[in-house]
Design goal:
Helices cover 44% and strands 14% of the residues. The chain has a 7-stranded parallel beta sheet with strand order 3-2-1-4-5-6-7, with helices on both faces. It contains 9 helices and 7 strands. It has helices at 23-34, 46-56, 70-84, 108-136, 157-177, 195-202, 208-219, 225-236, 265-268, and strands spanning 14-18, 38-43, 60-64, 89-92, 139-144, 182-189, 247-250. It has one domain: 3-Layer(aba) Sandwich (Rossmann fold). By secondary structure, it is α/β, with parallel strands linked by helices.
């Protein structure tokens, strides 16, 4: 789905996007800015992150941010407040594939790293965003989950556990903050063409077309990062002002199509992944 023409749907809003140096995060940051927002481009990938901020122009600032460091996440949010006076949108999007392999062979250190990047980072973002948004009486928190967070057997174990927990955390936070004017939702993408998924599919991180073609062949329609950016834009906007505690699945019916089959362990290392390349280890 190609991005729509700008209509100022986020005019005057201030956003922080983690994992914004590439993939879903970069596309979303650019889309937010095109719709009138000012954006903190937060990522551990310094060169790529600065390039995205430069492409956006004066409406963006790059902040180096390792999302496994709570202080770094807090600093990214503080930069938005210091620069522009408020925070309206927090998009907790950074991710990794993480630990892979059969459960009996899964490395414990890799498991802990997976949970740290995919779950703990979301907690940090929600926590520190809420500290700004609650006194304002408004704000939209968006968390990237995955179809691996709503169905089983389509992602590595650690990835699935973390993304499922993100869905639960989103609901819990939404329930708490509803009376305070702050919304919290999640997005659950299917397989989306990013540098990381391209590397898994074809061995070439630049070959995004290979991921799109694989999804077209397997599911009947090619995927695109713009599909997720469009979903994030909607949840960030006032159009979604009565939506909170929801997980918006964007997967072209993959998660409800019982006939599409279960994946082998090697295939599951890339199915259901919606990462930005925050950490490609």
């Amino acid at each position: 789905m190609a991005p729509q023409d700008s209509t100022g749907r986020l005019a005057g809003k201030i956003a922080v996007v983690t994992g914004a140096a590439s993939g879903i995060g970069a596309t979303s940051a650019k889309r937010f800015a095109a719709e009138g927002a000012k954006v903190i481009v937060a990522d551990v990938q310094v060169d790529l992150g600065r390039r995205v901020a430069d492409e956006i122009g004066g409406a963006a600032r790059f902040v180096e941010c390792d999302v496994t460091d709570e202080g770094a996440v807090e600093a990214a949010i503080r930069r938005a407040v210091d620069e522009w006076g408020r925070l309206d949108v927090m998009f907790n999007n950074a991710g990794v594939v993480g630990a892979v392999g059969p459960i009996e062979d899964t490395d414990s250190a890799a498991w802990r790293r997976t949970i740290d990047v995919l779950l703990n980072s979301v907690f940090y973002g929600c926590k520190h965003a809420a500290r700004v948004m609650v006194p304002q009486g408004s704000g939209s928190i968006i968390n990237t989950s995955s179809i691996a967070g709503v169905i089983g057997g389509v992602g590595p174990h650690g990835y699935t556990a973390a993304k499922t927990a993100v869905v639960g955390l989103t609901k819990s936070i939404a329930a708490e903050l509803a009376a305070k004017g702050v919304r919290c939702n999640a997005i659950a993408p299917g397989t989306i063409p990013t540098a990381l998924t391209a590397d898994l599919v074809s061995g070439d991180a630049s070959n995004l077309a290979a991921v799109a073609e694989q999804t077209r062949q397997r599911f009947g329609k090619a995927s695109d990062v713009a599909d997720i950016a469009n979903a994030a834009l909607y949840l960030a906007s006032d159009e979604a002002g009565f939506i909170s505690g929801h997980t918006l699945v964007v997967d072209y019916a993959r998660s409800v199509n019982g006939g599409s089959g279960r994946f082998t362990n090697s295939e599951a290392s890339m199915i259901g992944i919606a990462t930005t390349g925050h950490d490609r280890r």
